[in-house]
Structures are given as C-alpha cells and as structure tokens.
Amino acid sequence: MAPGSRTDVLIDATQPPGSSSGIFIYDGATPTQIARLVTTNDAPLRPAPLPAAAALSSLHLPAQLDLKNAMRVDVQLDAKAPWIAPAEFTTAMPPLFQAKRSRAVVMSITNPTKAITAFRLHGHHFRLLDRLDDGWKPFWLDTLLLNAGQTQRIAFLAEYSGQWLIEATGIDWASPKLVRLYSVA
C-alpha cells in the first residue's frame, strides 16, 4: 500500500477454541507479522461463519470507462521532468495536461528513478489498468506505488472542473516531494 492509502478489512475469526493465527503483510520482499488473532477457549458465538460481506458502494464513480477515445498522457516521475518542490508551487504554473470535463484520461506513469515512488492524483479517483490492456482492477485508487524502473497505467474520468495537484514522492523519509498541476475544464 502506498503512503496515505487505506484498505478496509473484515475478519470473521471462526477458528477452533484455543487457537491463534498470525496476520501478515507482504512488502514485496518479506512477509511481516503485524497482528495475531487469539481465540478463547469459550464456546463459539455462532456455529458457522458469517455470509460474505457486500461490496462497498462506488458511490457516483462510473462502472465503466470508455478508453477508446481517452486522452493519453505520459508522465515521468523524476526531477528531470518539469516537477517542482511544494515551496515553489504556484497555481500560475502551466498544467502538465488539460482535460475536457467528462472525458476519460489514460495516464502512463513511469518511475525512471532507482527508488520506489508514491504517485498521488488529487481531485479524481482512478482505476489501475491491467498490464495486458484487457481491463482494470475492480477498485478505485488515488495513490499508487511504482517500483524503480516500473511503468503503470491508470484511467479516470475527468469530472471535476478546476486545477488539481499531482504528487510524486520517494518512500524514503528523506526523499523530496515533487508536485505538478493538471486541469479539467
């Protein structure tokens, strides 16, 4: 998960009485235990697991994105591109791109650096496109981690007019934050 991201987890612990199970997170290199569920020796509260939880609503986000006529944008996440430090930010700077309202946008985001970088798109939620270009992940994001040298593609519907911030930050604590604008009109 990228910094600032979240995930919702529902655990229905239906283990035998007196047992325990670890909860692990995998960071791409090593599984790390972050918690342990311990079941008491008391009788179970119910004889069977709960039914599967209903999916969370996407609220007003579109079920489908028409990518055939989408605006295509290539983004490089490094200081060589026209990114700036937040202290130098001004809304007078030219936007990285300008999308028409209600148009789908596909961004190809490349991390040419040697560090994992967090990419954050303000103002809109996006879908992570599959690498085989045959669909997208069934969840919405606003932040994405890109490994060193990795390219990812995202798609979103430019719904909200205005100027919006894009951030790129290495996940090392000393990495600088870089920002750009994009606009929707």
Would you spell out the secondary-structure blueprint of this structure?
Layout: E1 20-26, E2 31-38, E3 71-76, E4 98-99, E5 103-110, E6 117-121, E7 127-128, E8 143-146, E9 151-158, E10 162-170, E11 177-184
Parallel strand pairs: 3-5, 4-11
Antiparallel strand pairs: 1-2, 5-9, 6-8, 6-10, 7-9, 10-11
CATH topology of the largest domain: Immunoglobulin-like
Mean pLDDT over the residues: 87
Structurally, the number of domains stands at 2
Based on CA atoms alone, the radius of gyration comes out at 21 Å
Task: Give a written overview of the molecule.
With 185 residues, this protein is mostly beta strands. The chain has two domains: 9-49, no CATH class; 71-184, Immunoglobulin-like (Sandwich). 0% of the residues lie in helices and 36% in strands. It has strands spanning 20-26, 31-38, 71-76, 98-99, 103-110, 117-121, 127-128, 143-146, 151-158, 162-170, 177-184. The strands form three sheets. A five-stranded mixed sheet has the order 4-11-10-6-8, with no helix packed on it. It has a four-stranded mixed sheet with strand order 3-5-9-7, with no helix packed on it. It has a two-stranded antiparallel ribbon with strand order 1-2. A hairpin with a 6-residue loop joins β10 and β11. The mean pLDDT is 87.
